[in-house]
């Protein structure tokens, strides 16, 4: 069975790890590499030779929007999905003109992420046909947002999720809308590693049991905080 090779270009290693975990849940996709700068991505890209790139916009050494055009020029068989917190219409417009397959805003919800990858899978499978039979099939190829109802999707929790830890985390989250937890804080509350806590929290977000927000305070990267969701 063919697997689509994905290259993650993301300057926040924690976000890259979350994206990688999401991809691991998709049967037909695999992570071929991760780069945290534009310069690193340029070096690794010919080696990874991906089918699909998940590309952020903001990097210390450039922007994903500019790099998109370089990808389009030199890697015409590689598709790009922008995964970013950038909400400026300038970046969105550039992504459209540059032929990006989709534009996903952070914080990422797993169901939205999964839906895009399933649409991409459907699109690539159709493109493997030698020709189209009619205008409807052409319209379907151009309409990438078409429903994925023809693809069987099975929602399965990630490996290593157990109900006791899950219930413990939900209990800590409680019902207070104003009280949010970082993965590190939750790890201390429940008694697990930060990576484990983040995996459980992201799973609960994907199930719409809790929500995640980026909080900007002080110096440094924004933090992902998890809150109760009605």
From TrEMBL:
GO terms for cellular component: cytoplasm. It comes from the Bacteria. The keyword Metal-binding does not apply. It is found in: Cytoplasm. The keyword Phosphoprotein applies. It holds the Pfam family Response_reg. One of its GO terms (molecular function) is DNA binding. This is Two-component system CitB family response regulator. It comes from Rossellomorea aquimaris.
């Amino acid at each position: 069975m063919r697997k689509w090779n994905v290259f993650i270009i993301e300057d926040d290693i924690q976000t890259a790890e979350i994206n990688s975990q999401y991809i691991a849940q998709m049967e037909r996709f695999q992570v071929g590499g991760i780069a945290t700068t534009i310069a690193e991505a340029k070096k690794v890209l010919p080696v990874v030779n991906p089918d699909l790139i998940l590309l952020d916009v903001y990097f210390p050494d450039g922007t994903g929007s500019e790099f998109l055009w370089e990808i389009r020029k030199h890697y015409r068989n590689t598709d790009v999905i922008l995964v970013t917190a950038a909400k400026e219409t300038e970046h969105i417009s550039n992504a459209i003109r540059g032929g990006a397959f989709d534009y996903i805003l952070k914080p990422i919800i797993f169901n939205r992420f999964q839906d895009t990858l399933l649409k991409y899978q459907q699109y690539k499978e159709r493109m493997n046909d030698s020709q189209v039979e009619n205008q409807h099939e052409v319209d379907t190829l151009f309409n990438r947002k078409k429903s994925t109802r023809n693809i069987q999707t099975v929602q399965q929790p990630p490996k290593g999720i157990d109900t006791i830890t899950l219930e413990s985390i939900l209990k800590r989250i409680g019902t207070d809308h104003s009280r949010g937890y970082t993965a590190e804080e939750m790890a201390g509350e429940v008694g697990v590693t930060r990576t484990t806590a983040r995996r459980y929290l992201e799973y609960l977000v994907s199930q719409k049991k809790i929500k995640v927000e980026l909080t900007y305070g002080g110096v440094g990267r924004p933090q992902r905080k998890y809150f109760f969701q009605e």
